[in-house]
Amino acid sequence: MAKSSDESFARTRLLLGQDAMQKLQDSHVAVFGVGGVGGYAVEVLARSGVGHLTVIDNDRVDITNLNRQIIALHSTIGQQKVDVIEKRILDINPHCQVSKLAMFYLPSNADAIDLSVFDYVVDCIDTVSAKIELIRRCYQQGEGARPIPIISSMGAANKMDPTAFRVTDINDTKMDPLAKIIRKKLRKLGIDHLKVVYSEEPPLPYAEDRQSSPSSEASQKQEGQGRRAIPASNAFVPAAAGLVIGGEVVKDLIK
Q1: What mean pLDDT, rounded, does the chain reach?
Q2: pLDDT digits (tens, 9 = 90+) for 18-60
Q3: Sign (positive or negative) of CA dihedral 66, 71, 76, 79
Q4: Buried b (16+ CB within 10 A) or exposed e, 65-98
Q5: Are 201 and 160 in contact (CB under 8 A)?
Q6: Is residue 34 within 8 Å of residue 245, measured between CB atoms?
Q7: Is the CA virtual torsion 69, 73, 78, 84 positive or negative?
Q8: Global pTM?
């Protein structure tokens, strides 16, 4: 016989207390992007007792996701990621309310989502324009409206050190090319602060590039074919970023 929802969070309650557990139960969190980083963030939120989760992603599980995404299994290849993660959330906590949107969030379709209904937004989007739009809308909710708490994931690809992640304001980031781009664009919008999770590890070159001269004919040919557009990753770095993000959201919700 399955234990009740109350019993399943008993150990978390011992650590956080009943009032905190009630805050989590009453919270509605949106996670934009449920891949390598976002999937693990959702895992933390579901196992922490967040009462309402909205997941947004239009990708399907691909065989190349197997090396790093918690929802990627041979049995889930080809399925919509939001469908797979919905089943996983409900298998963890059947009492969680799950909303799902199979969409690529972009400036052109951002009006389709009312961000004001969320208590917290988790940005695990890959596209710069989409990240900027989501952050802008969370901060600029309109006259008299409160900014929506948001945490953004910076670069997790081409890295090997899961201990190098830090939680900070985007103005204090270093060694992260994505954070540098986002920071400059936000300043132009008048947004001076953003909570981010980023890695201090410099992005690594591809393994074959470390073993041969970047100026070699083969390397130049590969660059010309656009191989550099494919990010390299592993099982543990994106997972570490997602776990940190999920933990930060839980801590902020129970303050």
Answers
A1: 92
A2: 999 999 999 999 999 999 999 999 999 999 999 999 999 999 9
A3: negative
A4: beebbbbbeeebeebbbbbbbbebbeebbeebeb
A5: yes
A6: no
A7: negative
A8: 0.92
**Residue 128: count of CB within 10 angstroms of its CB:** 12
Nearest to 61 by CA among 43, 35, 24, 93: 35
Q: What is the pLDDT of residue 4?
A: 52
Q: Would the CA dihedral through 240, 126, 79, 43 be positive or negative?
A: positive
- What number of other Cβ atoms are within 10 A of residue 51's Cβ? 18
Token representation of residue 26: 């009453």
Using DSSP, state whether 6 is helix, strand or coil.
helix
Rounded-to-integer distance, Cα 242 and Cα 233, Å: 14
pLDDT at 7 over 70: yes
- Written as six digits, the tokens of 11 are 């150990």
CA-closest candidate to residue 153, choices 189, 194, 190, 184: 194
**Maximum Cα–Cα distance across the chain:** 63
